[in-house]
Amino acid sequence: MNYNQILKKGENFLKRRKIKNPFLDAELILSKVINKKREEVILNINNKLNNSDIIKFKNYLFRRSQNEPIAYILGYKHFWKDKFLTNKSVLIPRPDTELIIEEALKYLPNDKSKKILDIGTGSGCIVVSLIKERPKCTATAIDISLKSINVAKTNAKLHQLENKINFINIDIDKYKSSYYDLIISNPPYINNVELSRLDNDIKFHEPKLALSGGSDGLRNLKKVIFKSKKLLKINGKLILEIGYKQKNQCAKILNENKFYINKISKDLSGIDRCIVSTKL
Ligand SMILES: C[S@@+](CC[C@H](N)C(=O)[O-])C[C@H]1O[C@@H](n2cnc3c(N)ncnc32)[C@H](O)[C@@H]1O
Fold this sequence. Notes:
Bound molecules: S-adenosylmethionine
Strand order of the largest sheet: 5-4-3-6-7-9-8
Number of domains: 2
Number of strands: 9
CATH topology of the largest domain: Rossmann fold
CATH class of the largest domain: Alpha Beta
Largest sheet: 7 strands, mixed
């Protein structure tokens, strides 16, 4: 069987199982199997596959047909300017989260050494991207999940930053070290009703611990805000990712905890997604 034939079979198989983007996914899976870029698949469309590659292709395709996200099958996801190792222990980095990077960079001058804390680091995509952009800064990244911390450490190592970021497996409630210039967090903020309505890819495969924000979705946002009040320097910045329709409640909690709201930015779908605030 050549690339063209197996891609067609793969596309049809995924289509029948109602997977979005069946051709793209089949192409990505084939490029993983033959360990070549997608462009090379297209350029060599009449190349033949050996039997062991056909078996690998079928196995990956079956996983995708069961709604396993393509980022877990490929083992990586692009975020900001780099590739990040991704597996089922961590949330898949989302393009919306790049808003945190855009905003944070405005408060991190190139020549200054600022102290940063990433709460709920997951794959480490935010903190690694920030330290790559601002190598003079130092960072700590925490997560309640040990498996996440291990993935984040591997990502830091892949980007030669293992000595620049201190990774700690701890619950935010128990973390005490303070005097940060900047705290960033994309906490789990999905409420229980929305959680039950998510696409199967997310609902059945991404870690609940990374998604669930309790009955109103605000449980972890509140924890991060209360804690940041203690951990930030005066005039330090807190940059948070928030969920759909959480802007007003989140701004209220920030104000009640003596934070000034600097900016609320929208994601590409026009949804309020990122709040920048200052500890007064
Ligand atoms: C939405 S994910 C964000 C992951 C990553 N920062 C990103 O943006 O892709 C939230 C992360 O917070 C972690 N988390 C949940 N509850 C926590 C807690 N109480 N203390 C510390 N981390 C927590 C989860 O394990 C998960 O990795």
